Amino acid sequence: MQEKKGIAILGSTGSIGTQALDVIESYPEVFDLQVITANTSADLLIEQAIKHQPNSVVIVDEHQFKKVQDALWDHDIHVYAGVDALSQVVDSNDVDTVLTAMVGYAGLRPTLAAIQAKKTIALANKETLVVAGELITKEAQKNGVNIYPVDSEHSAIFQCLIGEFHNPIEKIYLTASGGPFRGYSHEQLKHVTKAQALKHPNWEMGAKITIDSASMMNKGLEVIEAKWLFHLRPDQIDVIVHPQSIVHSLVQFEDGSMKAQMGLPDMKLPIQYAFTYPDRLKTDFPRFNFMDYPELTFEQPDLKTFSNLQLAFDALHTGGTVACALNAANEVAVDAFLKERISFLDISRINAETMNAVASISQPTLEDYIAVDAEARAHASNLCK
Ligand code: MG
After folding, report:
1. What spacing in Å lies between the alpha carbon of 219 and ligand 1's midpoint?
2. pTM of the model as a whole
3. Which CATH code fits 5-149?
4. How many angstroms separate the alpha carbon of residue 11 from the centre of ligand 1?
């Protein structure tokens, strides 16, 4: 019998993390849960640890260490605290695959540590590649590490490429649902609220990515993510709006043939595939029914009104640390929007102003990324006042 696959979930209390636990629980003969971690959600982390019995847990917020330790004292579970522990726990020999499911820039250093520990990466934290794609892909190559995408669009591209890795890609099409404000004019966007922005038509996700979907920043980040995952030039990446979210993305090859990956929107599938590639495990997920979707439609994205997507393409063209600055500005702006301190349209304005204000560094080191991230955050925070 094949040995079980040891999984570490960095960010187990978020939307991807909890769905990953469901996947692992469904196949006890395939997966062995080694590590779960949370930033601040100690109560849910404790509940998950008691239910799923990992080898180790990490609570990043050190103030809650005692609470977690006390709650788990009579379980055979190691409890650690602090951000550095994230890098240490993945180093265990029993960990084969690390799912990076934390939110935002905070994913960068633990992902880098997991790569340096030569662990297979199931990448859900797209910001890591947006911020430092050049460095991450270089390190992955150096350490012989595979990065499997969990993002549904990138998983779709990856699935279309199976058996085709020797064939050059002409182009990829990332599909976008368009979010809750698809078709809105600039004028209409002026007055949208946080509650409206948090209501995504097709996907259940965390708050940050849901706002990013409404502003099209998510698709912008995915464009940059795709460049690094699949080694593409900017002109090989296109975005097409597909409101039904059934076609998860497409690849066009040099003979003009196109392959698409389809299915009902359910993140458990890409999570599971990143864990089990090249195998597929039988599931009881609801199946797509053509009669429920007699029409699948496609339209051009509106890059003028949803300028975040244009900004991402601009960052991709310029290279260096521009995408790092854009990502930092966006994290600050989305946080301010969620706290109702700025309006929806302020997000893309702050992103553009910050991206233009912070000088780009070419061939950046980790220290360069850290410095640019800090500078962009300070700049964007000022603009939120
Ligand atoms: Mg996606």
Report:
1. 7
2. 0.96
3. 3.40.50.720
4. 17
